[in-house]
Amino acid sequence: MISFAFWGRVSTEDNQDPASSRNWQLARSRALIESRGGVVVAEFFDVDKSRSIPPQRRPEAAVLLAELRNPNRGFEAVVVGEPQRAFYGNQFGNTFELFNHYGVGLWVPEIGGPIDPTNEAHELIMLMFGGISKGERNRIRMRVRTTMEAQAKIEGRFLGGRPPYGYRLMDVGPHPNPSKAADGKRVHRLEPDPLTAPIVARIFVEFVHGQGLYLIAEGLTRENIPCPSAYDKARNRHRSGVAWSKSAVRAILLNPRYTGRQVWNRQHKQEELLDVNDVTQGHVTKLKWNPEDKWVWSDAVVHEPIIDVESFERVQTLLSANGRPATERKPRSTPRPYALRGLLYCGACTRRMEGSWNNGRSHYRCKFPAEYALANKIEHPRTVYVREDYIVAELDPWICQIFTPANLGRTIEALLDAQNSETDRVVTEAARKTIEDCDRRMSRYRSTLDAGGDPQEVGRWMAETRAERLQAEGRMRAITRKREITEKEMKEMIPKMTEVTRILEKADTADKNELYMQMGLNLVYDPSERVVVVEARPSMYQSACPRGDLNPHVHHWTLAPQASASAYSATRTVVPGTREALPRRRT
């Protein structure tokens, strides 16, 4: 009996049912291998991952590729339900050599069995499927964009997403597509929200009469009018929603949909290479603002306007009075790297602090009152400043002390415990009970056979039970894979991590920031106490090398913020897994 790992993928949870997609891919795989005595003992199925993402960057596929180098992987070959879902473009050529190197067969229904690395026809077929996959994605993308453009321009249809502040969604009937209508999908359009539409009109009137963005925001906050993120908390869980900001007022003034027309294509998704020096890493998708001449406007007014066109155009003229076009402001990039970029938060308002270069040094600041006009809401200094070198001077020694011999045992124990979730324990316990049940059944089947039972019938029972046991063992191995590394492997890795910590003081700032982020550091600065509290949520695991097909024999260790370990602060230096504190010290 040959043990197989099943490899599949479904692109989006919205457009496809992941359970149905997995079932038909798995059924197709089993139809190929069961006639040859194969059984699936492990599954690697990615959900909501585009085919354009290389397998090394898909969570489940990356674990599968990492398992190839494990001699105790538990499976002898890998079966793919559909090659177009596993490989895109030239991904097959960048991945198959890894299977070939470790002697793990890759079975594909279109080949009728395992891919022969010496057969040119097999390679041509797989490369063809990669090209078909890429072409299919491009055609779908083109059809979708063309259809949405026509729907926005000609029909003025609301194409989804959150309604702009001042509007709410109104049901206008079943979807015009019969199949989607049968699934219960409805068509919506915008209608003025009786609570927020007057606020939008007020913002336009006040701006036209000479009030600035800050004064408008301050007035709305003073009157306790909820800002957009506070009014619609369900869609804005990532925002504080404390008060009105200048950026929120500006976004309302720039939104042309308040004139009653539908506007689409204000932004577009652009794919950029993740690493220009290694194209096999694939692309990342980023949202980019389109110039105004690329916007798609509906031919007619399709929903009730909140303001008239003349007022909207006058506001755009006022916003452009300084000579710059009235467009959404993009986040400004800084030419200087910051070691704690994106990791340091203000303890007074919980907002992320921004980098600031002053007097030749890196600082972090929080201008909460100027940004949100809330000086009367909380006790917050006009501007909070803290120097980066003060924090890093305390942070780096703490990172180094985690891996000292005195703390090694507690660090390893904390990291191992952090990777065990309640779900994993439930799955492991269920798999253990299944194995015990299979062993009991096998014992009864042998007794039945000894008592003169039908050998053919009993043999079929034993084969089914053996396959069930192998699958349970596969689930237990999958949990073990999620744990990633054993205590022995951690101890072998610690000296390497100690080497890294020794050079932290001389490390490049950008490299430090990457390491801090991978360790899951979260820093909170309390301006009243002048104390920084640092919490780390590291999870060590063995990862696939970005160039794994070139260096398959090398183990690469990574730190990632996947599980909570413990906390460290400038006042309480807490080693993972303990509550022992060093003497109090201010930063």
Sequence-ordered SSE layout with sheet pairings:
Elements: E1 2-10, H1 18-33, E2 38-47, H2 59-67, E3 77-80, H3 83-86, H4 91-102, E4 105-108, E5 113-114, H5 120-155, E6 167-174, H6 178-182, E7 186-192, H7 197-208, H8 213-222, H9 228-231, H10 246-254, E8 263-264, E9 267-273, E10 283-289, E11 296-297, H11 309-319, E12 344-346, E13 354-358, E14 361-366, H12 368-372, E15 384-387, H13 388-402, H14 408-418, H15 422-450, H16 455-483, H17 487-502, H18 509-518, E16 521-526, E17 531-536, E18 539-543, E19 556-560, E20 566-569
Parallel strand pairs: 1-2, 1-3, 3-4, 12-16
Antiparallel strand pairs: 4-5, 6-7, 8-11, 9-10, 13-14, 14-15, 16-17, 17-20, 18-19
Helix pairs in contact: 7-11, 8-10, 14-17, 15-16
Describe, in plain words, how this protein is organized in 3D.
- The protein is globular, with a radius of gyration of 29 Å.
- The protein contains 18 helices and 20 strands.
- Strand 4 and strand 5 form a beta hairpin.
- The longest helix is centred in the first third of the chain and has 36 residues.
- The chain folds into four domains: 138 residues, Resolvase, N-terminal catalytic domain (Rossmann fold); 118 residues, Alpha-Beta Complex (Hect, E3 ligase catalytic domain fold); 151 residues, no CATH class; 50 residues.
- By secondary structure, it is of the alpha+beta class.
